[in-house]
Design brief:
Blueprint (H helix, E strand, L loop, with lengths): L2 H35 L1 E2 L1 H8 L3 H35 L3 H29 L1 H19 L5 H18 L2 H6 L4 H10 L1 H18 L5 H8 L1 H9 L7 H6 L3 H14 L8 E2 L10 H4 L5 H30 L17 E2 L2 E2 L7 H16 L1 H30 L6 H29 L5 H29 L1 H20 L15
Parallel strand pairs: 1-2
Antiparallel strand pairs: 3-4
Helix pairs in contact: 2-13, 3-4, 3-6, 3-9, 3-11, 3-15, 4-5, 4-6, 4-19, 5-6, 5-11, 8-17, 8-18, 9-10, 9-16, 15-18, 15-19, 15-20, 16-18, 17-18, 17-20, 18-19, 19-20
């Protein structure tokens, strides 16, 4: 063998060794490239992380925002007899207080939804806490009826921002847990309602309604400091092109839950058309939006109708009670004119408390209906049952019987409100979810604005005439709910339309 052939053979062997050494490194690089090519969405990340400690923290803090909202709304039922007495108000003037609160809610509902879709959910909810606490505190210093209704309207505006917390909460919860966790938020609403009634029972007779309002601001102030533990929605961040912020949030949640993110990169299309009303009326959502607006109108109309009706029936002793005691023989109208001062007695507060318990009594049934029959059919069933109970509320019964009927009615209207919240948060895409919720809550406040004039003004004239509009609205709404084109049970949240 010649020297040149030996040289070629050695070179060939050396080259093969080099290739063998380099091949594993190349394989490793190919593997890294393969991982980098993988992508995942926020929906994939939320489902992969699953339920854990973060969601418990989210449930407690965001659920507590319902305490604030419930206290501000239910405060009207407790304060009505007191301001009627202090400023010698007519029925329509008392009803106007509730209407002004819902007017503020309606105006700021759409505005808050637009801002939340354009600039973030967290800012709107936090601002709502601060705004509602500030103006609620100012209400306790109102020198006149005019100032009182103006300041309560400002409170309603702040509560509209707080209500966007439902969207923020929904966007972090995995699909299979939404039908269980979201109805449980009713517990916090019940706690807020009961807290304001207990405050009324303990504080109003001794210190007056002004001190009751001042004390009721305490939960809002506490939540302002706790809210720093809740991050901005990752779904909003990716829709706004803030992928790095979304990844930071998802990593933090995964660490809290002791879970891991899917392999690869977070990729979502950036959407410039965020918070556009055109999405709500696009061919995909037009029918759903119109039917939802009416459903929200009725949900608020019957909920606040049931709350204010119970307050009015107890305050004016308009009940047809078989076993009435001396306290219930007092009538609203006296021979010498209107009796302005008929404050709640201990038994009246007790009845309101028991009716508040009704808001969570049927939560297990609500969860079962949502998981078995879906959102649309659940809404239909609840509306028909509410119509039935509104009508039998007029039947003469014992005080115990009235309390049971009121208990069941409050359960049904509360469940209905909760389901319509869930359906709305699930049916709209991320780019218009807050605006969709804002429009819906604004339509609901129209129902809230009308309800006081039926439940507080017409009720004085005829109990049956006041109850009929609530029952008819429920029946019509049940038909509308049945005709909704989209069922969201078990469906992933949409990112884009």
């Amino acid at each position: 063998m010649s020297d040149s052939m030996k040289t070629q053979l050695v070179s060939s062997i050396h080259l093969q060794e080099v290739e063998l050494q380099e091949k594993p490194a190349d394989d490793k690089q190919d593997s890294n490239n393969s991982n980098n090519d993988k992508t995942f969405t926020v929906e994939d990340a939320v489902e992969k992380i699953g339920f854990g400690r973060f969601h418990i923290l989210l449930f407690v803090i965001m659920g507590s925002s319902n305490i604030v909202e419930a206290m501000e709304i239910m405060l009207l039922a407790v304060v009505s007899p007191e301001i009627r007495c202090e400023w010698r108000l007519e029925d329509w003037q008392v009803a106007l207080v509730s209407t002004m609160v819902f007017l503020g809610f309606m105006v700021c509902g759409v505005l808050g939804g637009y801002i939340a879709d354009r600039y973030g959910r967290w800012k709107v909810v936090f601002g709502g806490f601060v705004w509602s606490a500030y103006f609620s505190l100012l209400t306790s210093f109102a020198p006149s009826y005019g100032w009182f209704i103006f300041l309560r309207a400002m409170v309603g505006c702040g509560v509209a921002g707080v209500s966007q917390g439902f969207v923020l909460k929904t966007e972090f919860i995995p699909a299979k847990h939404r039908a269980t966790l979201l109805p449980l938020a009713t517990i916090f609403w019940m706690l807020g309602s009961m807290l304001i009634i207990i405050l009324g029972m303990l504080v109003v007779p001794t210190l007056g309604w002004r001190w009751m309002i001042r004390i009721s601001v305490t939960p809002s102030i506490i939540l302002i400091f706790l809210f720093k533990f809740i991050p901005e929605s990752a779904r909003y961040n990716v829709s706004a092109g803030k992928t790095e912020a979304a990844m930071k949030t998802l990593h933090w949640i995964a660490k809290m839950n002791r879970a891991s993110l899917p392999p690869g990169r977070l990729v979502e299309p950036v959407t410039s058309e965020r918070g556009s009303w055109r999405i709500l009326l696009s061919p995909s959502f037009r029918r759903t939006s119109v039917l939802l607006w009416y459903s929200w109108f009725v949900a608020s109309f019957i909920y606040y109708g049931s709350v204010l009706s119970s307050s009015e029936l107890l305050e004016k002793n308009l009940l047809c009670v078989i076993d009435a005691d001396k306290e219930h023989q007092v009538k609203h109208r006296h021979e010498d004119g209107l009796c302005y001062c008929i404050p709640f007695g201990y038994s009246d507060y007790q009845t309101l408390l028991i009716s508040c318990l009704g808001e969570v009594a049927l939560v297990p049934a609500n969860i079962a209906l949502l998981n078995v029959f879906g959102r649309k059919m659940t809404l239909t069933v609840l509306q028909l049952l509410a119509a039935f109970f509104f009508m039998i509320l007029n039947i003469c019964s014992t005080m115990f019987g009235f309390t049971v009927l009121l208990f069941l009615l409050r359960s049904l209207v509360s469940m209905n409100f909760n389901v319509v919240y869930i359906y709305t948060a699930e049916v709209y895409p991320t780019v218009a979810r807050s605006l969709g919720m804002g429009f819906c809550t604004s339509f609901s406040r129209i129902g809230g604005m009308i309800a006081p004039f039926i439940a507080q003004v017409l009720m004085s004239q005829s109990v049956i005439l006041a109850l009929c509009p609530f029952a008819v609205a429920c029946v019509l709404c049940a038909l509308g709910n049945f005709l909704m084109p989209i069922e969201t049970k078990g469906r992933a949240l949409l990112q884009n339309s």
